[in-house]
């Protein structure tokens, strides 16, 4: 939801709070690293899939520690993914 506080922030502060530059830089790096694959389905689809993965929290899979540590959303996404993988460990006395 849109909060009144968000509208009171200058645009550069809002973008900084949400780490938009971090995600844009990462998206462009990923695009350049995979440009051969991307030519098959287009740049717009790549950015759509990238930012959908950010929203879903799956963008941290198979990523380096510095990327996971870069934003609060990345850290929370990592913890959710870790919990999903290991929540059953030890439940049955293992």
Walk me through this protein's architecture:
The model has no long low-confidence stretch (mean pLDDT 90). The protein is mainly alpha-helical and 94 residues long. The chain is flat and about 50 Å long. The longest helix has 15 residues, at 72-86. It has one domain. It is built from 7 helices and no strands.
Summarize the structure.
Belongs to the CSTPP1 family. By secondary structure, the protein is mostly helical.
- Fraction of helical residues: 55-70%
Query: Which stretches are poorly predicted, pLDDT < 50 over at least 5 residues?
Result: none
Radius of gyration: 17 Å
Strand content: under 5%
Shape: flat
Cα distance, first to last residue? Answer: 43 Å
Q: Report the count of strand segments.
A: 0
Largest sheet descriptor: none
Q: Structural class, from helix and strand content?
A: mainly alpha
Average pLDDT confidence is: 90
The helix tally amounts to 7
Organism: Physeter macrocephalus (Sperm whale)
Keywords: Cytoplasm, Cytoskeleton, Microtubule, Phosphoprotein
Subcellular location: Cytoplasm, Cytoskeleton, Microtubule organizing center, Centrosome, Centriolar satellite
GO cellular component, one term: microtubule
Task: Output the keywords.
single chain; 94 residues; mainly alpha; 7 helices; flat; phosphoprotein; Centriolar satellite-associated tubulin polyglutamylase complex regulator 1
Note the topology.
Layout: H1 4-8, H2 11-17, H3 20-33, H4 35-38, H5 43-56, H6 65-69, H7 72-86
């Amino acid at each position: 939801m849109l909060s009144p506080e968000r509208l009171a922030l200058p645009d550069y502060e809002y973008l900084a709070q949400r780490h938009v530059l971090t995600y844009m830089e990462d998206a462009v790096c990923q695009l350049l690293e995979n440009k051969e694959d991307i030519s098959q389905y287009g740049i717009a689809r790549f950015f759509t899939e990238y930012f959908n993965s950010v929203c879903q929290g799956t963008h941290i899979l198979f990523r380096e520690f510095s990327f996971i540590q870069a934003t609060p959303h990345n850290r929370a996404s990592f913890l959710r993914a870790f919990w999903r993988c290991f929540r059953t460990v030890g439940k049955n006395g293992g």
